[in-house]
## 1
Amino acid sequence: MLTVSWIAPTAIVIASVLAMEFVAWSSHKYVMHGFGWAWHRDHHEPHDHLLEKNDRFALVGAVLSIGMFAAGSPLVMGAGAWWPGTWIGLGVLIYGVIYTLVHDGLVHQRWFRWVPRRGYAKRLVQAHKLHHATIGREGGVSFGFVLARDPARLKVELARQRETGIAVVRESAGA
């Protein structure tokens, strides 16, 4: 049996968490605002439901995490277990927890009420509110969930999208 120090697993977990922001950004931009719009649409529309069709995407992330845990488990895979799988699964799980706290909790206030007045938390909220400034799935800005660009630059991009007809932007967006 291969003995692995704590350095490699820790590096794999951190790399997996960081990689998941890219996975989330690209799946948000190209899947959720593409062929997955039927699941994602209700997230962009006002409603008073506890759950959204959009929450199904969290289940997709859970399946990815569980699948990686299984791939790394000798109990599941026997001698064919791929040891990094466990640590990748943990990184995906940690990203899922961060996503739930930041996106669902902080930004959309589904789990708690706190409106940040300054700092990076405020920037995250502003960037995601600008993401929701478009009507429909076309155009848009700020598809990531944890890394947020400068809201002033996002407003400029939304204004450009409005002027060129790429996106329909709500009047209240200030773009």
## 2
Amino acid sequence: MMICVSLLKKHCLKKVSLQNIQEVFKKEYLGSSEVNIEIYTDINKKDVADLVLHIQNAEFGIPITLELQPDLNEIPAFYQINNGNFWIAKIDDKIIGTISLLDIGNCQAALRKMFVDKNYRGKEFGVGQKLLDTLIEWARHKGFTEIFLGTTEKFTRAQRFYEKNDFKEIGKQELPAAFPVMEVDIKFYRLST
């Protein structure tokens, strides 16, 4: 509590509110830099793999390895072909999020590898929304008419996020034949662009 009081004094905040405390925390511990969305390059390969695996394994207990996700070792060859792409979210030089769009043909795409570091989730930072907005804008510009995704039962916050962004839940049988279903995926969504 003393740390919070001294930080509030340091930042000249007389009124104590949850919003004020969150703002001070962000400035002091997470940096005050802006979130930047960039197109992936292989210079970020290890950091992307580390982020994704940490979220999958440590945070959600999903027993999946890098070897079971060969796309993470070959991002340009897997995602950045045809009209697909892969983006990273960064604050300063730290990668805090990822998202990709896989071109599966027929003006359809798969949203894959959407991950945000738990310290940067939520409306305060807007990382997930910035990543998704970038992907949707790209998809529309490239002429995609539908975006599909699959997710696990454990990603309930992600499911609510997709639903708030107009993704509609569909049955597995409604997926296009070219959609790459992951073994852990049990819920599926579609967005008409």
## 3
Amino acid sequence: MSLTAVKTSASVEGTERLGAAFAPSLRVGDVIALSGPLGAGKTRFVAGLVHALTPGARVRSPSFTLVNEIPGALPVYHLDLYRLDAARDIESLGLEEYAEQGVLVVEWGERLPHAWLADALALKLEPGEGDAREFAAAADGERGRQLLDAWRALPEAW
């Protein structure tokens, strides 16, 4: 990933607001690859994004289910690859079918096969002091760069 842009959040609520603010930029087939340590705020970011697209939707970590499907005008497929190591296991999730129907938001997204990362927006979350977080966005492919432009247009601090 070559192009980057950084945002910061001072709280859990700020992390959710950042996700919500980014949600209108998404369309069917988009891939958001989230990375960062356990407890970095990946699921809270997804919660904000999902609630902006589907108010009242229940958002929980898909650590054990691997995929949570959130129906709506723009369906969101919230994946967690933490427990999967082999590319074969990841490909068996049916990523193509999900991408044809909605947005893929993938925790531990760095584990996605390279072909899926080519046009993704990669967001690396770094915990700071207390609930503060830093979000470093990067993209390479054409759609990824479009998403990065939308990310850059957002305020820097949340």
## 4
Amino acid sequence: MYSEKVLEHFRNPRNLGRIENADGIGKVGNPVCGDVMKVYIRVKGGKIADIKFETFGCAAAIATSSMITELARGKKIEDALKVSRDDISSELGGLPPIKEHCSNLAADALAEAIHDYLVKRKLKVPAALEQRHAQVSRTHAHDEE
């Protein structure tokens, strides 16, 4: 059912945890399956210097959260925003069709963390990110903390 890489990231997740006083935090959830992902970023020099996650969910949710941190670390903000659900799934060796939504959640959690960072710093939010944020706000149930 799951690839070896998915199982490896589930059993040994990379960058698990919280960044205190993070520059940006993105939280998304799927009310149907109950998965909740939270991504924390620290930005230095316009690049993601540190990234961590907390996820409540299935093996695919944990693996995709782990993978998004590996794909985004060290990237410029604009490049990190280009990491797609297909990139995440591909890097994990594929996901079962019923679990593909997890890769979308992970990409959305990263985008939400970047949006939060830009808004907090009063920096320009690209129109595409603003639209994505509005879409995520409508489709993913999440609580404000």
